[in-house]
Amino acid sequence: MRKRIFFVIVIFVLIISNVSMPAAAGNFTNFQKINIYAVGQFTDVPNSEWYASNVQLAYEYGLIHGKSPTTFEPSSFLTIAEAIKLAVCLHSIYHNGYVTVTNGDPWYGPYVYYAISNDIISPVYANYEDFATRADFAVIFANALPDDAFGTMNRVADYAVLDVPMNYSYSAAVYKLYRAGILTGSDEKGLFLPGRYITRSEVAAIVTRMANPDYRRSVVLG
């Protein structure tokens, strides 16, 4: 309990002091394949699944690992802390060429500190170990790279994502990711399903598209 209170106090002090950590100019070439993915490595990721290639790429880039040497658990949910760590890894690799943050106590503490310092997140979450909704994930990841690293691949008009009205707190982040070709929707209507928890298979697709624009997708809504 004391550890949790101390951690929250540190984060509040950081916010109040408005500490910033300027990053160097980034480059997508900093994302390199550093792991070898063996065929059938994860027994719960059949090649026939839509996310199979994304899991392979995310693993090869060193962004997501399995839950065990042989399982990925594609349907498992991601926590807010894990989402922040992934966003920090993307930001750090893009700007520095490698991940400059390591686990602390609690393990996610240094990632939260880095994320706040670099304007990836602003709020102090009530519980970083809660599952992240798709809306939570969009808000965090929309700030993981600079604006010019997203670009506009798709012409997605305001209100085209039917379950994300423009006056919602997370709407700007969601539309930014749709327009960049990072999000494509969950069905033929392009619905986002903001309140649903995000799965590891969905995350694998998103981080792959964040790290390499060649994998971004075209989408037509409206």
Could you characterize the architecture of this molecule?
The protein is mostly helical. It has one domain (2-17, 27-215). Helix content is 36%, strand content 0%. It contains seven helices and no strands. The protein has helices at 2-17, 52-60, 80-96, 109-117, 134-141, 171-179, 200-211. α3 packs across α4, α3 runs parallel beside α5 and α5 (134-141) crosses α6. The protein is globular. It starts with a helix and ends in an 11-residue tail after the last helix.
Quick summary:
The chain is an all-alpha fold. The protein has helices spanning 2-17, 52-60, 80-96, 109-117, 134-141, 171-179, 200-211.
Secondary structure elements and their pairing?
Elements: H1 2-17, H2 52-60, H3 80-96, H4 109-117, H5 134-141, H6 171-179, H7 200-211
What's the SSE pattern? HHHHHHH
N- to C-terminal distance: 49 Å
Q: Give the CA-based shape.
A: globular
Low-confidence spans: 12-24
Global Rg: 17 Å
Q: Give the integer mean of the pLDDT values.
A: 90
Based on secondary structure, the structural category is: mainly alpha
Beta strand %: under 5%
Number of strands: 0
Major beta-sheet overview: none
Helix content range of the residues, please? 25-40%
Q: Number of DSSP helices?
A: 7
Number of domains: 1
List its traits:
mainly alpha; 222 residues
